[in-house]
């Protein structure tokens, strides 16, 4: 990240996600999740249909209150909103990872820690259970 909160977004992911994409707080990690506009619209439609009771309103607040559109500039940089940088603890060094139809942005230190603490035997068991 530069001093203004901009980061270079990988060309390969820009090509996959399209020219403009949506960023929001991750549901289960202290990172940011990036969606293509079509994928975000599908998710937003499902979330909008949730009843406000039974946690639906909290889910709507969580996802929609932090969501913002990212449009790369001519150098391929995107501006990460301050509130989202704060949520994910993004300071200077960040990691962008692809996840099938979306991507995540992590603080490099948090990503390295997550990788070091990964329970490989549990992941192998889950893969075997799923037939992978």
Low-confidence stretches: none
| SS-based class | alpha+beta
Query: What's the total helix number?
Result: 6
In percent, how helical is the residue content?
Answer: 40-55%
How do the strands line up in the largest sheet? 4-2-3-7-6
- Strand residue percentage: 15-25%
Terminal-residue CA separation: 36 Å
The major pleated sheet works out as:
5 strands, antiparallel
Give the C-alpha Rg: 16 Å
Topology, number of strands: 7
**Mean pLDDT, nearest integer?**
89
Categorize the overall geometry.
globular
Order of helices and strands: EHEEHHEEHEEHH
Q: What would you note in describing this structure?
A:
The protein is an alpha+beta fold. The chain contains six helices and seven strands, in the order βαββααββαββαα. The chain has helices spanning 11-17, 37-48, 56-65, 82-88, 108-116, 120-129; strands at 6-8, 21-25, 32-36, 68-70, 77-79, 94-99, 102-107. It has a five-stranded antiparallel sheet with strand order 4-2-3-7-6. A two-stranded antiparallel sheet has the order 1-5. The protein is globular.
């Amino acid at each position: 990240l530069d001093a203004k909160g901009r980061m270079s977004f990988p060309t390969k992911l820009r090509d996959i996600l399209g020219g403009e994409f949506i960023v929001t707080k991750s549901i289960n990690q202290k990172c940011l999740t990036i969606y293509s506009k079509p994928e975000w619209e599908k998710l937003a439609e499902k979330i909008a249909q949730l009843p406000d009771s039974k946690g639906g309103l909290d889910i709507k607040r969580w996802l929609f209150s932090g969501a913002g559109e990212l449009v790369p500039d001519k150098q391929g940089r995107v501006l990460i909103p301050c509130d989202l940088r704060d949520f994910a603890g993004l300071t200077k060094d960040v990691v962008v990872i692809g996840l099938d139809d979306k991507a995540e942005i992590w603080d490099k230190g948090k990503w390295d820690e997550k990788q070091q603490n990964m329970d490989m035997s549990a992941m192998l068991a889950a893969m075997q259970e799923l037939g992978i």
